[in-house]
Design brief:
alpha/beta, about 270 residues, six-stranded parallel sheet, 9 strands, Pantoate--beta-alanine Ligase, Chain: A,domain 2, Rossmann fold, binds pantoate
Length: about 270
């Protein structure tokens, strides 16, 4: 595995590459969710590039960028064992210049749900993802379904800017008890870890109601809220897969989305119906 930290080194390596290239962009603190994306990329491409970059522009001023988990040594091991070819770990100075053109996610999509609590967050995500696409020119790029809104906005950017990359959506990976894997789970105490199960239970209860025939989106939202009653809920929504509120649930065109605080930790989970 080649580890590079400068754009110059990455560009030189990229020039040599032939065949399909799979890019897995990450912010590090790699867990089995990332690993499953890397494994999928390994199977589907000749070369696998993983980027690890804690991107400052997607953190709001009140969010602690410096406290985001960083586990460089463990991440290197994961990438080596998973057969990654190139690991790109740039510094902030390498990725950002004083003069940057504005890249803004579409307002109607990026200021709802995650964007409502974290205005501007998706502008930063799209900005860094676009830079990574330009630097690596991947055939396929891999993103987890767990960040469903991020995934949708990236797919939308690819479509509307005519980018030549195929976006591959990786399934949510869960612990045996249902907790969706997330780098943020590291912040949970033992008690909080148990409380956090309410998110996946809420999704399960909602999906069972839908399987039994419930199609009223508001009623399904209430079922989720009932299961989340011991947590501070940011949102528990039933939307179509293009992130529009619909009164009626349509099978194969619905996402159930939850964001809730367990203690100080804000967790996300979702289920595609
Ligand atoms: O999902 C993430 O880890 C980040 O938002 C991403 C896509 C790597 C951009 O920094």
């Amino acid at each position: 595995m080649k580890i590079v930290s400068t754009v110059k080194e990455l560009t030189a390596l990229r020039e040599e590459l032939k065949g399909n290239i799979g890019l897995v962009p990450t912010m590090g603190a790699l867990h089995n969710g990332h690993l499953s994306l890397i494994r999928q990329a390994r199977i589907q491409n000749d070369t696998v590039i993983v980027s690890i970059f804690v991107n400052p522009t997607q953190f709001l001023p009140n969010e602690d960028y410096s406290k985001y988990p960083r586990r460089e040594e463990a991440d290197l091991k994961v990438c080596t064992l998973a057969g990654v070819d190139i690991l790109f770990m740039p510094t902030v100075e390498e990725m950002y210049f004083g003069t940057e053109p504005e890249i803004a996610a579409p307002k109607n999509l990026s200021y709802i749900l995650e964007g409502e609590s974290r205005p501007g967050h998706f502008d930063g995500v799209l900005r860094v993802v676009l830079k990574l696409f330009h630097l690596t020119r991947p055939t396929n790029a891999y993103f987890g379904k767990k960040d469903a809104q991020q995934l949708y906005l990236i797919q939308n950017m690819v479509k509307t800017l005519f980018l030549h990359v195929n976006i591959v959506a990786g399934d949510i990976i869960r612990e045996n008890d249902g907790l969706a894997l997330s780098s943020r789970n590291a912040y949970l105490s033992e008690k909080e870890r148990i409380k956090a199960l309410a998110l996946s239970i809420a999704l399960k209860n909602a999906s069972q109601a839908i399987m039994k025939g419930e199609r009223d989106a508001k009623k399904v939202e209430l079922i989720m809220l009932e299961s989340l009653k011991d947590l501070r809920v940011d949102y528990a929504k039933v939307l179509s897969r293009d992130f529009v509120c619909k009164e009626q649930i349509v099978i194969k065109d619905t996402i159930l989305l939850i964001a809730a605080y367990v203690g100080q930790t804000r967790l996300l989970d979702n289920l595609w119906i």
